[in-house]
Amino acid sequence: xxxxxxxxxxxxxxxxxxxxxxxxxxxxxxxxxxxxxxxxxxxxxxxxxxxxxxxxxxxxxxxxxxxxxxxxxxxxxxxxxxxxxxxxxxxxxxxxxxxxxxxx
Length: 104
Hints:
About 5% of the residues lie in helices and about 45% in strands. It has one helix at about 10-15; strands at about 20-25, 30-35, 40-50, 55, 60-65, 70, 85-90, 95-100. Strand 3 and strand 4 form a beta hairpin. Strands 3, 4, 5, 7 and 8 form a five-stranded antiparallel sheet that branches. It is elongated and about 45 Å long. The protein has one domain (about 10-100): Sandwich (Immunoglobulin-like), CATH 2.60.40. By secondary structure, it is mostly beta strands. The relative contact order is 0.26.
């Protein structure tokens, strides 16, 4: 159960849509940083990186308000030149929020 103060800017749906993604590394392996610039938690249930015909699963996490989380990209050996992330967040009512974004 979440308690939210009244009058937060935006919505939980918008928070999921506007996550910012960038490449990083963790323990010498490629990883992703998810940056949440909203006042809402974003709960990821599934995520995968796609580059051309290749895809890799991402270990999902909950991204805190105005926070960042580093997520492992399973089996990825090197950062691809061009990639996007497909991720599913869980909305307030348990609904699926399906999103795609380019990774910077």
